Amino acid sequence: MLSFLRISSAYPSFIKKLQNNNLRNLNYNSLIDLYFKENYSVSNNITNELSKLNYECKEVISNFDLSQKLWLKEFGNKRSKDNIIIQQIKFYKPDIVYLGNSELANKEMIDLIRQQDFIKLILSFHCAPFNKKIIRNLKNVDGIVTCTEGYYIKCINEISKNVLLMQHAFPKKIIKHNIKKNINLTFIGSIFLEKNLHYDRVDIIYSLMRKFNNKFIAINFSNKFFLSYFFALFKSIYKFSIFKDFSFFFKILYIYSFARKPIFGKDMYNVLSKTKILINTHIGDTEFAGNMRLFEGTGLGCLVITDKKKGLEKLFNIGDEIDIFLNKEDLIQKCDKYLSDEKLLNKISINGYKKTYNFHNYENRISLLNNFIKKLLNEKNL
Questions:
Q1: Residues 165, 214: one domain?
Q2: 127 and 41 Cβ atoms separated by less than 8 Å
Q3: 321 pLDDT more than 80
Q4: Mean pLDDT of the residues in the chain
Q5: How far apart are the C-alpha atoms of 329 and 207, rounded to whole Å?
Q6: Range of the domain at 66
Q7: For the chain, what is the domain count?
Q8: Is the Cβ–Cβ distance between 102 and 146 less than 8 Å?
Q9: Is 176 domain-assigned?
């Protein structure tokens, strides 16, 4: 039996929301159980499925300070020179460490992990824009797991040949198709102005907010939003393009003022289960499809309309299981069309739901991860 430790992290805004509840009287295991009941992001779906394949699995959330403090109090040693993650690795003694956040794969941390003689493999997940630091970090691990073809190609070409393309998924235990839907249109996502990753979203979201009634638009802004906003504003003034950019700055402030606060996990799934049309867009640096919202939306019975990206046709049949938009005008036209033809809307949403249930589930994805682990262990003669 192989032992597997997943070290993950979460959006600070989700942790803040969770810690607003009365959690102080919980012990560590009860707190972690509560965390996973929120079904945030990947949650514990990877370790749940690996457990079915005879792995002994544990999870820790590296930036969930309350849980880490409780762990240290109940299982750790406050006097130890080791940081808490190394203490947790020594305590659980995993054969495989799976870093859910490549920021943790820095050389200092990886060297400390490799000092533990029970460690056989160190894996890291990364499915986000790259920078020099991330590339350096990923060169420190034995294998990389990523979620889109574009990131897969980049990893292969610049970092390592030991890369697994494992698309996002949605758990069968949550997948459902609720035909009693009372929200016409939903968008749930982020707007980060840094590196222009979400600039294209601004015009789309603003138009949806102004055009449609009975909508649910929830936006996660970075903690540095106003700093980024004023930096972009001053840059525009400096380049004498403020008159051209004025519309953008107005729209982003409108969205910030009138969009709903971000929601995560089961709160988000509750909204999606009541949603007829889910609008999806990918971040600006990727040419390839594969973000998580594709699978969350179809898994909860929405008709997903997404931006056109490479590889999308490998995941869903376009026009039959999901639909695409080419620009803002095309998106609005398609939303109007489907909202006026609910028979067609329901047909496509049901087909998308069936595709995710049958193919884009964690059962299928984890079989890929299991084979990848066995391949790497075999190459190491372990």
A1: no
A2: no
A3: yes
A4: 91
A5: 9
A6: 3-169+361-379
A7: 2
A8: no
A9: no
